[in-house]
Amino acid sequence: MISGQQYIAGHWCGQTEEGIQSFDPAKSRALAYSFAEASAEQLHQVTSAAGMAFEQYRQLPAQQRADFLQRIAAELKACADELIPVVMAETALSRSRVEAELQRSCFQLSFLAAELVKLAPINDAALPERQPVAKAALQLRQVPLGPVLVFAASNFPLAFSVAGGDSAAALAAGCSVIVKAHSAHPATSELVARAIARAAEFCAMPAGVFNLIQARNYQSAEQLLLDPKIKAVAFTGSQQVGLHFARLLQQRAEPVPFYAELGSLNPVFVLPGYLDQQPERLAEMLVHSVSQSQGQLCTKPGLVLLPQGPALQKFLQKLRELVSAQQAGPLLSAKIAAGYSKTAEQFRQMAGVELLAEGVGEELGCDRRLRVFLTDSPVVVSQPSLMEEIFGPATVLVVCQDVTQMQMLATLFAGQLTSSFFAEPDELKQHKALIRQMELKAGRLIANMMPTGVEVSAAMQHGGPFPAATDSRVSAVGGNSLQRFLRPVCYQNMPDLD
């Protein structure tokens, strides 16, 4: 059942109206689901509900919160047969991709459930006999920040949306959550929210611990951002919107943390020895990575730096062959398709930039084809827009004279989620300076693998210096993701309150 309503304080409420329409991007047609735009009064109600729920939820034992996360995973698995077709219809993603994302989402919930029970205070014993000043007993604990506002992502309808990593980490930390559903997949959002609601009821969670708001207009988002009950915000989306939200939060009487992922080029450095040995294999890996999910991944390789040499032509020839056989597919939304078309055309018109190859599929419009552009280092230096992300199935190849020129270009990069290095075993040590340079620019360094794919692990870092993320010290994935929604409190000479 999809009602088109808001989920506030444990209840589906409001009238279903023609406000937000579910849409099938593969067939360019409206689906049978309509959703009401949340009213200003409902937005006020939802922050009040989340604030009241937080006071109860934060005091629950860690194991009880962990059981809640595990139950959400179980409810998502139980509704897979209903959920997966709706996700596919709203996003045009393949069944295998959606099934994998659902599995990842469930694992992520279970992983964070295990991580939160590991959180333990740090104790420093008293030394009353110490001279000349006695030492008091100290205990450092992590306490949750408060209600968290989560903006769902367009490109991950499950893993970075309603029950995705931001919501899961906030709930694990002991925070109540308000999710602003993404208008590109509102029906998916409601079905996932219903699974969370069933889990909350089963686990006897406080009403308002989780809430879902459907809202398309920016005024609704701004009202939520400016509400003083909101104590942290998680966002995945465009740099323009993210920076606007960041400015709003800084204007509040009480600024709060804004954890945003705003885009990344994920530069790939190909060193000479590797290109000499495996030019065709490299072409295969690159095309697979760029075309995966139609290039709509935050870890898509958007810039590939290549050395001059005889093997370069073998690589380019294989790349042309593979790209020319790639069938175009629908993008997540008409807005994304229009943005991709505009940016790709701008690149095509740039002096010194060649369209090396493009895929097929005229019936879908050339704006959705896989594209590979070719240029060289001096052009990139003179055209900084080539170092901006194209969200969609495209990448830019940059030919460099040598590794020294690659390192020079690396100094111009903004912050990145990842940076990959394709090298023979001795080359990584030989060019250690390049790797050290990218340590300052990226959150994850990768050897001989494409960056697409983010493992949910205690050792994962999914973030990076601005504008990859607004806080490079934390991760949006893995065990460190909980730290975004916690703050340290020291208890000095205090009795145990548990």
From TrEMBL:
GO terms for molecular function: aldehyde dehydrogenase (NADP+) activity. Signal peptide: none annotated. It comes from Rheinheimera soli. Keywords: Oxidoreductase. Residues 15-464 form the Aldehyde dehydrogenase domain. This is NADP-dependent aldehyde dehydrogenase. It is an enzyme of class 1 (oxidoreductase). InterPro entries: Ald_DH/histidinol_DH, Ald_DH_C, Ald_DH_N, Aldehyde_DH_dom, Aldehyde_DH_Superfamily, ALDH_KGSADH. Its EC number is 1.2.1.4.
